[in-house]
Design a protein that fits this description.
This protein is mainly alpha-helical. The chain has a domain at 333-584. It is built from 16 helices and four strands. This is Trichoplein multi-domain protein.
């Protein structure tokens, strides 16, 4: 009997090898409870903020969530107030939970905060006329930061409900604060466009004139008269016609007092507008005066005669055509791109090492399973052989007992035959001296004597034959028992081979599953890197005012390590497979 005693350990499952949590923690080094969907959503949000259209063409869209993880709702954390799906589809219905900026849930306790949010929202949602202005008006120069050239990106679905669900509420009409921005920016644009011949006081006078004209439609003079534009124009005509008579009448006046320049500029501005409408709007003034956000218009006095080419050259940044030659080497030598490539190489190393660890763990689990099967088979076979030996020993013992009993019976029979022969001979021969009388021996008595002698002569052969028959029967029983035992051992070996084949097929199937999972994870990882590269490309193009059509290649994956060179850290969740393999060996 072998001294080895098989204590079957607890069989491990392969679930941790395929577990996403282990992959996220050990390969991607993500925090606990953070998934790839959340990582993709955060990256998509950053890409959207970077100006990339439709980031989900790079990464797969989330399957279990209908909005971005970072979207802010009343029952979620405070991170963002924009629904990604409503932003993409421009839906007019409620596609997600109401956001912080939505007015769809006005409870009595929230009316004050909703009004405050409505004010801030009105600044970020231009009206239809504002959108028309943004489409018709060229963008100011790069120095102006308060005017947005692109349409505002507030999602209509985040703050809207179906018409049937809306309830009208009386609201006080007030001017939108967004027009003040355009008024202030327009004055700033005009001041920046004034020629150098105008002094600072002149520009201030223009600004004062616009403000004065906004609040007072009729100019009020020092003499107390309030002159309309028609009256001011009459004084100017009178001064022009009387210029030949007296030099004092060259200046338009009222009650002997010259009209201030601010009053004259009102009329001159209107006349300039009329003349420009007749002649056709010039690019220098119509761009700012026809915007619709300056009530008084822009004074045309002293403005340089800018051509259309000058304005286009000032407003539009110089950008190469798409087919212009670009120094790709200079772009790829960018420090940010090098940092990206370094990060990608490091991540590829981590992921490749984890993949090798997965393969090593799966192989170790397979070897452990085979080792368990072999140990169990060997132990079972040894126990069966031992049982067979005991059965044979018991059978042989029974056979020996049977033979001993037969020999003993033969000896008794031989003794009985000898005793009978002795008495028959004594009767027939008459050798007994104590017989008182003589008797007659018949033929039958003699025949009995002969038969008894023959029986005695044949008795050893008979006994030997009986012993041989017994031994032959015992031998047949032994052979049958050995054949049965051999069949049991062969069936045991066949079952073991069948189990090994099943485990080999299972290992092959799980290996293919692991390789497919590795390929899927690599593809998703490369998709995230594609989006990161696209974000870098977008920033580089904006920084260099050009386009980059070259395909940004990924770093090559590290070569697969040999099995003997793979080591699993004891801190890894997959170390248990290597430990189980060592203990099973």
């Amino acid at each position: 009997m072998p001294d080895q005693k098989w204590d079957p350990p607890t069989a491990l499952s392969t679930a941790p090898i395929f577990d996403d949590a282990v992959y996220l923690a050990e390969a991607l080094h993500l925090p606990v409870n953070e998934t790839e969907d959340q990582l993709d959503a955060e990256l998509v949000l950053l890409a959207s903020e970077s100006g990339i259209a439709d980031p989900y063409r790079f990464v797969p869209a989330p399957k279990t969530i209908a909005r971005a993880i970072s979207s802010m709702t009343l029952d979620s954390d405070e991170r963002s107030s924009k629904s990604i799906h409503s932003h993409e589809t421009q839906s007019t219905t409620l596609t997600s939970a109401p956001s912080r900026t939505s007015r769809d849930h006005l409870y009595p306790s929230d009316r004050l905060s909703a009004k405050m949010l409505t004010r801030s929202l009105s600044r970020s949602r231009p009206t239809r006329s504002v959108e028309k202005h943004q489409q018709a008006t060229p963008c100011p120069g790069p120095g102006i930061g308060s005017v947005q050239c692109s349409p505002l990106s507030a999602s209509p679905s985040a703050v809207s409900l179906p018409t049937a669900q809306r309830q009208p509420r009386p609201r006080k009409k007030r001017g939108s604060a967004i027009f003040n921005i355009f008024r202030k920016d327009t004055r700033f644009v005009v001041a920046s466009r004034l020629p150098s011949c105008l002094t600072r006081d002149d520009s201030n006078a223009c600004t004062a004139n616009v403000t004065h004209h906004r609040h007072h439609r009729d100019a009020k003079l020092e003499c107390g008269h309030s002159l309309s534009a028609y009256n001011v124009r009459g004084h100017m005509l009178e001064a022009t016609n009387g210029g030949a008579k007296s030099a004092t009448h060259l200046v338009p006046n009222c009650c002997g007092n010259p009209l201030p320049p601010s009053v004259l500029e009102i009329v001159l501005t209107k006349e300039t507008d009329i003349s420009e409408k007749d002649e056709g709007p010039s690019p220098a003034t119509s761009t700012f005066r026809d915007s619709g956000y300056c009530e008084a218009g822009i004074p045309a006095i002293g403005l340089p005669n800018l051509t259309k080419g000058d304005i286009v050259a000032d407003n539009l940044p110089s950008k190469r055509t798409r087919h212009a030659p670009i120094n790709i080497e200079a772009a790829l030598a960018n420090e940010a791109f090098k940092s990206f490539k370094t990060q990608q190489t490091e991540q590829f190393e981590h992921v490749s090492s984890f993949e090798c660890t997965q393969r090593k763990a799966l192989e170790a689990h397979h070897q452990t399973t085979l080792q368990r099967l072999k140990v169990r088979h060997d132990v079972t076979k040894e126990e069966l052989i031992e049982q067979h030996t005991e059965d044979l020993e018991r059978l042989e013992e029974r056979q020996l007992l049977a033979e001993h009993d037969m020999i003993k019976a033969h000896a008794q029979e031989t003794q009985n035959v000898c005793t009978a022969l002795k008495y028959i001979e004594a009767y027939c021969v008459g050798t007994r001296e104590e017989q008182d009388r003589t008797h007659t021996v018949s033929e039958d008595d003699l025949k009995k004597l002969e038969r008894q002698k023959a029986t005695q002569r044949e008795l050893p052969r008979k006994h030997a034959s009986a012993i041989n028959v017994l031994r032959a029967r015992q031998e047949v029983d032994m052979e049958r028992r050995l054949e049965a035992q051999e069949a049991e051992l062969e069936q045991l070996d066949a079952d073991y081979e069948k189990e090994v084949s099943a485990k080999e097929a299972e290992y092959k199937k799980e290996s293919e599953r692991l390789e497919g999972l590795i390929a899927t994870r690599r593809k998703r990882l490369l998709q995230r890197w594609d989006l990161r590269f696209e974000m870098w490309r977008k920033g580089w193009e904006e920084q260099n005012n050009t386009t980059l059509d070259a395909k940004l290649e990924h770093e090559t994956w590290p070569p697969r390590k040999a099995d003997h060179a793979i080591t699993i850290s004891d801190a890894s969740a997959l170390y248990q497979y290597l430990e189980a393999a060592v203990s099973a060996a």
